[in-house]
Amino acid sequence: MKRWTLFIPFIIFTLLGLLLWRGLYLDPKDVPSALVDKPFPAFSLPTLLNGELKNEATLKGDVHLVNVWGTWCISCKVEHPFLVKLAQQGVRIVGVNYKDENDAARKWLNDLGNPYAYSVDDEEGTLSMDLGVTGAPETFFVDANGVIRYKHQGPITQGNWAPLEKIWLSLVNESKQAVQP
Length: 181
Fold this sequence. Notes:
This protein has five helices and seven strands. It has 181 residues and is of the alpha/beta class.
């Protein structure tokens, strides 16, 4: 038997150790979405408050934040007051109520304020699955053509809004330029 073959387990162990060490420094929130720069997935879901059917076409014509949320989500409760503030400042937000009790979700919006232009009832989680949601909250920046331009995992707060606002304003400006003759 050749001596060099004795080093194979050591080489494999070293490579695995390097990969695991590298993994310690990856940001788990920095997971790219396969849907960035692709059209928002097709859906047809009722709104939470009045049952009106909405679909992906309702996202066209204006820039939106599409926020996946649930009353069972602690981070969503942290994020909610800031979303209300953003909505008051003119940011158009559409909600996707993910696998939630409708009565609890309506009470939440009534008690804490409703930042959403509308919120669809994704009780089965089909839209959220099509979006590749791994947990709530997740927010998608959708341009006026209905194309997803950015995905943010975790709550949007005053503390992390500054870099996100740059993305938002860029989409708004692109939208305005596309409308001008």
